[in-house]
Design a protein that fits this description.
917 residues; 7-stranded mixed sheet; RNA-binding
Length: 917
RNA sequence: GGGCGAUUAGCUCAGCUGGCUAGAGCACCUGCCUUACAAGCAGGGGGUCGCAGGUUCGAGUCCUGCAUCGCCCACCA
C-alpha cells in the first residue's frame, strides 16, 4: 500500500459563510445552469439515446397554483435523473394559449367583446402593449358614464389583444418555472397558437379529412349559452343543483274506452313545455299501456304530440310518464332521432327563447292558436329561469288547461337536488341546440383506442382504468369546432351556389402548401377575394378548433411532424407524458387518438400521472374556493429546493396534502447538506484509498442505497428514491459515519487510516450529492462546486454521472462514455471483511449515547472507561472497527463484558465511567 | 348505479411479491451549547394498522363483505 503524499483538495472552513444564502445562491445557480447549458440536448442523437418528455403546456390564462409546482417538479426530477444516467434528455415547454380561458380573461380585463361585424380600429392596431391598448379602448367607449357595457371590437383586434394577454401570462409561468430551477429547454418553447402549431393542427385536419375521419353535420350538440359555442363531451361536468319537480297535466286526444282522459307528467324543466314533441312511458307500464299510439295535448301551448313506448323510461321516476323536448337532455336527443319526432328548437344560441309565432310556425290544435301564440309571446326573449317562472304562472291559470280540469299545474313545485350538466368553464347549464359542427369520428374506433391505451405504460398502473373506462363510455364523436375567435382556424371554405347558400357537401380544404391559413383572410385556390360571400363564389368557415384539437398534438408539434422528417424520427414516439389525472379523458385521450389516426402509433411509452394537492380538509385545492395558495411567495420564503422537496415526497397518482411543515423539513435538509459538505471537504489528509474496515463497510451500505434508489427511479418511484437516500444521508452518513470518523480524520498517528477516512467521507458526500441532485438541485450543486467540480471535470453535479448504471436492463449502458476519478467511484472500493461492521459500529455508538443521555452528561464528555455488554456475534462484528467506536465514544478503549447482557431491544448496552476533570 | 383509489401514532406519510417486539418526520416530554450544523444532537412517551369474517403455522400485508372519504363515469323526466 502506497500512500500518495499529495494532499486532498480541501476548502478553508472559514471561507464559507456560516449560513447558506438561499435566494442569492439559487439565483447564482440558475445563471450558471444557463451558461453551462445543462438543459440543452444534442440534436444529432438517434431516437434510442433520446429521452423525450411531452411536457404539459399550461393553460396560459389559468391561475398559478401549488398543484403546478407539484407536478412540474415531478417532471424535472425525472428529467434530471435521466440526464445523469446518460440520456439525451429533450425537455420542451409549451403554452396552451388559445381557447376560452384567454378570451374570457380578455373580456373581463378590458371589458370588451368580440364582434366580427365591427371594423378594425387603426388606433388599436397601433397600440403595441397592454397599457396603450387599455387607454385606446377607454377612449373608444361611446359613453364614459356607462362603462358597464362591454365594448364591441373587431375579430382581428380581439385576437391581437388575446396575444398580448397570453404573452404576459406566459411570462408569469416562465418566471415561476425558472425560479423553481426547472431544467426546461427554453430553446424548445412553443405555443399552441404560434405559426408552427397552427400549421401542424391544420395539417392534422387535412390528414384526418384525407383518411375520412372528419365530417360536418347539423346535429343537436351540447351548447354553452354564455360562450355561445359547442362543447365536447369531455368538457362537460355535472354539478349538483337545486331544482324542482313540476307536476303538469296533459290531455289525451280521443281516449279509448276505459283509458284515462288525461295524465300528469313531472318535470324539472317546465319552461321547455312549448318545445315538447312527444310523450313516453315504459312499454310494460299498465297505467299508460292504452295510450301508446295516441296523441296528447299539452297545456298552455295546445300542440298535439305522439305518445310512444320506450324502455328508457323508468316507471319509478316521477309519475312514470314524461315529456320529450327538443332538447332537454341527451335522452331527448336519442328519442327525437329514434322516433323521428318533430324538431321544435325553442332556444336561441344565446339561451333566450326564440322569436317565433307559436300557432303559425308550430301547430296548435284548432281553436287554440291565438291562446298558444299569446302565451308563447310572453316567453320570447327571456332567459331560461325567467321563462320557467312565466311558464309556471301560465300553468297555474285554469284557462290554459288542455283538459278542462282546472289549472294544469298540480300543487306547488317540489324542490329536489339533482345533477345538472355544465360546461366545465361555464356558469350556466348546458343546452342542447341544433347547430352545424365539425366532428372527428371516434365512436367506430373504440377498439383501436383501447389497444393503444394498453400499449402505454401508465404510472401508476391503475390510471389505465380511467382511460379504459372513459373510452368504453364514449357516446359521441368528438365535436372539434368552436364558435370562438382566439384559436386555430379550421382550414375550410364552402362554395356558394347561385342563391348564395353554402354547399357543405363540397367543402374546400386548404392545400398543404397554404398552411397555416386563415380562410377568413385568404381565398381558396381557384377563387379570388372578390368572390367572397358572392353567389357562385365562396364563403369561409369562421369556426376555430377546440383547443384540445391542437394540444393533443403536442408530441407532433415538438417533433415537427410534416416539417422535419429527421426530427420526427428522433423524437417520436416520446418517452413520457407527465400530466394530472383529471385530464386523462381529454388531453391523454385525444393525444392517443391523434397519434393513432396520424401515425398509427402510441404518442409516448409512459404516462406519469400526478395527483392533486388537497387541503388539510381533504378537498381539492382550488382558486375558486379561495383555498389555493399563490406559489411564488412560498418559493421566496422557503427556497426552491425546499418546495421541490415537498413535491418530491408526493408519489405519482397519489393526492397530497398541502402541508407547509414539509417545506421546513426540506429547508432543514438543505442546511444539513451545506454543513455536512463544509465539514467533509474541510478535512485534510493524504490522497489515499479506502482501506479501513469501517470505511469499506460504510461504502458497502452506500452501494445498497444507490441500488435501491436507482431501482425506484427506474420505476418512476422517485419519492421512494428520495426516502431511501434521505434516510441514509441523515442517519447513516451524518449522524453515524461522520461521528464515528471524527477521531480518525484528525489523527496524526494513523496516516493511512486518516487518508482512508477522508476518502470515505468524500466518496460518501459525492454519492449523496448526486443521489439528491434531481430533487434539490441548488444546494447539491453548490457543495459539488467547492471541490468536486474541479476534481471530476464535471462543472455541475447535474452533468455528472449517476453513481450506478440504471437498473433497467433495456437502459443499461446509457452511462457509456462517462468516467470519474477513482475517488468518486463506488466500484473501486473493495468489500469489507465483515459485512456487519458498519451497522454494528452504529449500534455500539448508539448504546454509548444512550448511556450518556441517561446520565445527563454531554455526548462529547470523555470517558475513563467504556464497557459494552454484548453477545459473541455482536462482539465479533465490532472487532475490526473498535478504535473508531472507542474514539467516537470518547473512551481510550472498548472493553466487553459477558456474552449475555444485551437487552431485548438492543444488541449493545454501554456501561460508562466519565473521566474526572 | 358502475369503476378506481384511500383508510397505519395528534398531524403528514413509509411499510414492495404475507415472516420482527409495526416505522419515519412533524408535534410533545427529557437531557446536551459535542470545535459541520441549536434552522443542531441525543434519549423518551405515543398505534388492538377503518369494521367484520375468511385463507394460513403466521395477515397492515392475501380473499370476501361492510363503512367512511376522495376521484372518474353513468343517471338527469
Amino acid at each position: 500500500m502506497t500512500i500518495s503524499k499529495e494532499q486532498v483538495r480541501a476548502i478553508e472552513f472559514s471561507d464559507l459563510p456560516k449560513r447558506f444564502d438561499v435566494p442569492e445562491r439559487e439565483a447564482h445557480w440558475r445563471k450558471m445552469w444557463d451558461e453551462l447549458g445543462i438543459h440543452e440536448h444534442d440534436h444529432s442523437q438517434p431516437r434510442e439515446r433520446n429521452y423525450v418528455i411531452d411536457s404539459p403546456p399550461p393553460t396560459a390564462s389559468g391561475s398559478l397554483h401549488p398543484g403546478h409546482i407539484f407536478s412540474y417538479t415531478h417532471q424535472d426530477i425525472i428529467a434530471r435523473y435521466r440526464r445523469m444516467t446518460g440520456w439525451n434528455v429533450v425537455y420542451p415547454m409549451g403554452w396552451d394559449d388559445n381557447g376560452l380561458p384567454t378570451e374570457r380573461r380578455v373580456q373581463n380585463y378590458f371589458n370588451v367583446r368580440c364582434d366580427p361585424d365591427q371594423q378594425v380600429e387603426p388606433e388599436l392596431a397601433a397600440a403595441q402593449n397592454i397599457n396603450k391598448t387599455r387607454a385606446v379602448l377607454d377612449s373608444l367607449r361611446p359613453h364614459k358614464e356607462r362603462i358597464k357595457d362591454p365594448l364591441p371590437i373587431a375579430r382581428e383586434d380581439f385576437i391581437r389583444i388575446c396575444h398580448f394577454v397570453t404573452e404576459e401570462d406566459e411570462q408569469a409561468y416562465k418566471d415561476l418555472f425558472n425560479r423553481m430551477g426547472y431544467s426546461i429547454d427554453w430553446g424548445e418553447e412553443y405555443a399552441t397558437i404560434d405559426d408552427r402549431s397552427r400549421r401542424i393542427a391544420q395539417r392534422s385536419f387535412l390528414d384526418l379529412d384525407q383518411k375520412g375521419h372528419v365530417y360536418t353535420a347539423e346535429l343537436p350538440t351540447m351548447w354553452d349559452v354564455d360562450f355561445q359555442t359547442a362543447v365536447a363531451q369531455a368538457e362537460v361536468e355535472d354539478r349538483e343543483k337545486q331544482g324542482a319537480y313540476h307536476d303538469i297535466e296533459f290531455a289525451v286526444e280521443n281516449p279509448g274506452p276505459g283509458d284515462p282522459t288525461s295524465f300528469v307528467i313531472s318535470t324539472t324543466r317546465p319552461e321547455l313545455l312549448a318545445a315538447c314533441v312527444g310523450v313516453t312511458a315504459h312499454p310494460d307500464d299498465e297505467r299508460f299501456k292504452g295510450l301508446f299510439g295516441k296523441h296528447a295535448i299539452i297545456p298552455a301551448f295546445f300542440s298535439r304530440v305522439p305518445i310512444f313506448p320506450s324502455d328508457k323510461a323508468d316507471p319509478e321516476k316521477g309519475t312514470g310518464i314524461l315529456m320529450v323536448c327538443t332538447f332537454g337532455d341527451q335522452t331527448d336527443v336519442e328519442w327525437w332521432r329514434e322516433e323521428g319526432l318533430a324538431l321544435k328548437p325553442m332556444l336561441d344560441k344565446d339561451g333566450r327563447v326564440r322569436h317565433m309565432e307559436y300557432g303559425d310556425e308550430w301547430e296548435a290544435v284548432p281553436g287554440y292558436e291565438d291562446r298558444a301564440k299569446e302565451n308563447f309571446g310572453q316567453l320570447i326573449g327571456k332567459r331560461v329561469n325567467q321563462a320557467k317562472r312565466i311558464t309556471v304562472e301560465l300553468l297555474q291559470d285554469p284557462a290554459n288547461s288542455a283538459t278542462g280540469n282546472g289549472a294544469p299545474m298540480l300543487g306547488e313545485p317540489k324542490p329536489i337536488s339533482h345533477p345538472v350538466r355544465y360546461y366545465e368553464k361555464g356558469d350556466n347549464p348546458i343546452e342542447y341546440l341544433t347547430s352545424r359542427q365539425w366532428f372527428v369520428r371516434l365512436l367506430d374506433k373504440k377498439d383501436g383506442l383501447q389497444s393503444k391505451g394498453e400499449e402505454v405504460r401508465w404510472r401508476p398502473d391503475f390510471m389505465h382504468k380511467r382511460y379504459a373506462n372513459w373510452t368504453d363510455g364514449l357516446n359521441a364523436d368528438w365535436a372539434v369546432s368552436r364558435q370562438r375567435y382566439f384559436g386555430v382556424p379550421i382550414p375550410v371554405w364552402y362554395p356558394l351556389n347561385e342563391h348564395g347558400e353554402r354547399d357543405y357537401g363540397n367543402y374546400i380544404v386548404a392545400p398543404e402548401d397554404m398552411l397555416p391559413v386563415d380562410p377568413t383572410a385568404t381565398p381558396p385556390p381557384g377563387f379570388s377575394e372578390e368572390q367572397r360571400g358572392k353567389p357562385g363564389g365562396f364563403d369561409a368557415e369562421v369556426d376555430v378548433f377546440d383547443t384540445w384539437f391542437t394540444s393533443s398534438l403536442s408530441p407532433q408539434i415538438v417533433a415537427r411532424w410534416g416539417d422535419e422528417d429527421d426530427r420526427m424520427a428522433q423524437l417520436f414516439p416520446m418517452d413520457i407524458r407527465p400530466q394530472a389525472h383529471d385530464i386523462i379523458r381529454t388531453w391523454a385521450f385525444y393525444t392517443i387518438a391523434k397519434a393513432m389516426l396520424h401515425q398509427d402509433d402510441i404518442p409516448w411509452r409512459n404516462a406519469a400521472i400526478s395527483g392533486f394537492i388537497i387541503d388539510p380538509d381533504r378537498k381539492k385545492m382550488s382558486k375558486s374556493k379561495g383555498t389555493a395558495v399563490t406559489p411564488l411567495p412560498l418559493v421566496e420564503r422557503y427556497g426552491a429546493d425546499a418546495v421541490r422537496y415537498w413535491s418530491s415526497n408526493g408519489r405519482l397518482g397519489m393526492d397530497m396534502a398541502y402541508d407547509e411543515s414539509v417545506f421546513k423539513i426540506g429547508a432543514k435538509l438543505v442546511t444539513k447538506l451545506y454543513n455536512a459538505g463544509k465539514f467533509v471537504l474541510s478535512q485534510t489528509g493524504s490522497q489515499g484509498e479506502i482501506t479501513n474496515e469501517l470505511d469499506k463497510a460504510f461504502v458497502a451500505e452506500l452501494k445498497e442505497v444507490v441500488r435501491r434508489a436507482t431501482a425506484a427511479f427506474d420505476e418512476y418511484e422517485f419519492a421512494i428514491a428520495l426516502q431511501v437516500t434521505e434516510e441514509f444521508f441523515w442517519s447513516g452518513f451524518t449522524d453515524n459515519y461522520i461521528e464515528l470518523l471524527k477521531g480518525r480524520t484528525r489523527s496524526d498517528d494513523d496516516m493511512e487510516g486518516r487518508a482512508s477516512a477522508v476518502a470515505g467521507l468524500r466518496l460518501g458526500l459525492s454519492v449523496m450529492l448526486r443521489l439528491l441532485a434531481p430533487f434539490i438541485p441548488t444546494i447539491t450543486d453548490e457543495v459539488w462546486s467547492w471541490v468536486f467540480a474541479d476534481e471530476t471535470d464535471f462543472e455541475s453535479v447535474h452533468m455528472a454521472p449517476w453513481p450506478a448504471k440504471s437498473a433497467n436492463p433495456t437502459e443499461a449502458g446509457m452511462l457509456d462514455g462517462y468516467s470519474l476519478p477513482n475517488a468518486h467511484s463506488l466500484a473501486a472500493v473493495p468489500d469489507p471483511e465483515n459485512g456487519n461492521s458498519f451497522t454494528a459500529a452504529c449500534e455500539a455508538i448508539a448504546a454509548v449515547r444512550k448511556a450518556k443521555s441517561e446520565a445527563g452528561i454531554s455526548l462529547g464528555k470523555p470517558l475513563s472507561s467504556l464497557v459494552l455488554l454484548a453477545d459473541e456475534q455482536s462482539r465479533a462484528d465490532l472487532t475490526l472497527v473498535l478504535p473508531d467506536v472507542a474514539a467516537a465514544g470518547g473512551a481510550p478503549e472498548v472493553q466487553f463484558n459477558g456474552a449475555a447482557g444485551a437487552s431485548a431491544d438492543a444488541r449493545f448496552v454501554a456501561e460508562i465511567e466519565p473521566l474526572e476533570e
